[in-house]
Fold this sequence. Notes:
There is one protein chain. The protein is an alpha+beta fold. The chain has helices spanning 22-28, 79-98, 140-145, 164-183, 188-198; strands at 2-3, 12-19, 38-45, 63-70, 103-105, 109-112, 115-124, 128-135, 204-208, 214-221, 226-229, 235-238, 245-248. It has 5 helices and 13 strands. The strands form 2 sheets. Strands 1-2-3-4-8-7-6-5 form an 8-stranded mixed sheet, sandwiched between helices. A 5-stranded antiparallel sheet has the order 12-11-10-9-13, with no helix packed on it. The longest helix has 20 residues, at 79-98. The protein starts with a strand and ends with a strand. Biotin binds at residues 21-23, 45, 48-51, 54, 56, 58, 65-67, 108, 119-121, 131-133.
Amino acid sequence: MESDKREFVGNRLLRLDRVDSTNRLAAELAVDLANNGLAIWAEEQTAGRGRMGRTWQSPPACGVWLSVLLFPPESLRRPALMTVLAAVAVCETIYACTQLQTKIKWPNDILLQGRKVCGILVEQGRGTVIGIGLNVNTPAEAFAAAHLEQAGSLAMFTAAPLDRAQIVRTLLGHLDRDYAELLAGRAEDLESRWRWHSGLLGRQVVVLANEGPVRGRLVEMNFASVVLQDAEGALHAWPPEAVVTLLPAAD
Ligand code: BTN
């Protein structure tokens, strides 16, 4: 177990060679409130979990397979909001370590030049587990072999392999700072960076929520609501939790 100076997120970092799933282990450790802030980073996952029951390929020494366990106050027990916290931290970590710009694809993917390099899985039980799977040094051939043509890794776009430990430290630092801001009741800065990294405000988009697809201009996106204005000028608003997909509209 390594200790670090982070106050909330990653105040302790447990490094493992191999585990079935860091999210599963973090959820198990939620029996003890003293594990608030614990981060678990595994070299390899044998049963990495993705969204919608999918598996997440987590080969050894290629990526950052990381989970953080938190016990947030009631106002922050919102997986949608914790997903934003993680997505913004990942984009800004990638930029800090590579100077490459990424985009958040609603709700939980991080794209680099159109390829998914990171997925986020937030699971809410006794605690909140934020799971981050970031493909760092995975060779391009591994995605082709797994028929994951839309997936990619950071190293596919950099001249040399990247230092994963540095990425973990940077990522935990970003998560810690932004979580502290949220705990202090300050969400505006994170909301604004979320809008920026999503790159859709003011553009024509399609929202899929509980009803059929709605097309319009995205006029607001914050932790309370996502608001579209359709061609007739009518406004449509949903809480972020109700938005299944939010995509740029095809012209
Ligand atoms: C997705 O489907 O896009 C989400 C993938 C999340 C994968 C990460 S890897 C670390 C953590 N542990 C898991 O079992 N899953 C998440």
